[in-house]
Amino acid sequence: MHKDIATPIRTKEILSKYGFSFKKSLGQNFLIDPNILRNITEYAGLSEKTAAIEIGPGIGALTEHLARTSGKVVAFEIDQRLIPILDDTLSPYNNVKIINEDILEADVEAIINNEFVGFDDIMVVANLPYYVTTPIILKLLMEGLPIRGICVMLQKEVGDRISAQPGTKAYGSLSIAIQYYTKAEMVMTVPKTVFMPQPNVDSAVIRLTKREKPPVEVISEDFFFIITRSSFAQRRKTILNNLSSQLPQGKEKKDMILEALSAAGIEPTRRGETLSIQEFGRLSDALYPNFN
Ligand code: SAM
C-alpha cells in the first residue's frame, strides 16, 4: 500500500513540489484526513465490481481511495494545472482515468458508455466544489444516468436542505427535486479541520440512492417541478397566494386554484413547507388541465 496523499505532510509536499496555489473560485479545499476518506468510500458501498465517477480529484486524495476500493475510476477535473500533478500522484494506480473537463459541460453518459463497459454498478463519489454543488447534483440526476447513487461531501447547509422532511425550515423545492429521484440521507458531518485550506462553512456527507420509481406518479414532471418551485417562491405566503402570484394568469384563475387545492385535499391557508411530495403530486395533477 502506498503512502496516503491525504495527510497534511504529504499534501504540503505535493503542493510545494509543484508550486501549486489554491484557487478559491474553483472551490479548492483538499481533504487531509485518510479516516474521512475511508468513511466516504464505505458509505458509498464500493467493490471491485463498482465503477466510480469522481468530480474534482484535486491532487488525488479521494481518487486513490476510490482506486483501491473500486474496479475503475473516472475523475473530471476542471483545473488544467492539476493534471500533471495527478499523473504523478496517481501513477501507482492503473484503474484511474482523469478527464480535464468541466463536469457541467461533460457528456457523462457517453463517457460511462465508453469507459465502464462490463460494469453495471456505478457510483458518483466526490468532495464537491462548493460553489457548484447543486447544479452538479441536479445535472447528474436529471440526465437519467445509469448510476446507483451519489455519495458526496458538501456544505452542511445544502445537505440539510437536500435531506429535509416536510414541516421543517430546511424543506423546500430542492428537497423535493432531489427526493423525487433519490432516497437522501445525511450520513456524516465533518469538521473544518480535515481540509486544506479550511472552508468557511461546515461540511457533511450525503448519500443519495436512486429510486426505482418516483415516490409519486404525476402527469407531467416539468409541471410538478414548476408547482413545487412556485409554492416556495415566498416562504411566508400561503400556498394559495404563492400559486396565484406565480402561475401565468394565476390571479384571474384563483378560483381554479382553490378548486384544485380542494380536489387534492389541501387547505389553501397551508404553506408550501408543510406539503409532502405526495400532496404536491396530487396538487400538480389537479392544476394541470387548467394551466396547460
Ligand atoms: N477531491 C479533492 C479532495 O477531496 O481533496 C479536491 C476537492 S475540492 C473541494 C474540489 C475540486 O473540484 C477541485 O480540485 C476543483 O479544481 C475541482 N472543480 C471545481 N469546479 C469543477 C467543475 N466544474 N468540474 C470539474 N471539477 C471542478
Automatic annotation (TrEMBL):
Specifically dimethylates two adjacent adenosines (A1518 and A1519) in the loop of a conserved hairpin near the 3'-end of 16S rRNA in the 30S particle. May play a critical role in biogenesis of 30S subunits. Its EC number is 2.1.1.182. Belongs to the class I-like SAM-binding methyltransferase superfamily. rRNA adenine N(6)-methyltransferase family. RsmA subfamily. Residues 36-212 form the Ribosomal RNA adenine methylase transferase N-terminal domain. SUPFAM superfamilies: S-adenosyl-L-methionine-dependent methyltransferases. This is Ribosomal RNA small subunit methyltransferase A. Keywords: Cytoplasm, Methyltransferase, RNA-binding, rRNA processing, S-adenosyl-L-methionine, Transferase. It is an enzyme of class 2 (transferase). InterPro entries: KsgA/Erm, rRNA_Ade_diMease-like_C, rRNA_Ade_Mease_Trfase_CS, rRNA_Ade_methylase_Trfase_N, rRNA_adenine_dimethylase, SAM-dependent_MTases_sf. It comes from the Bacteria. It comes from Rossellomorea aquimaris.
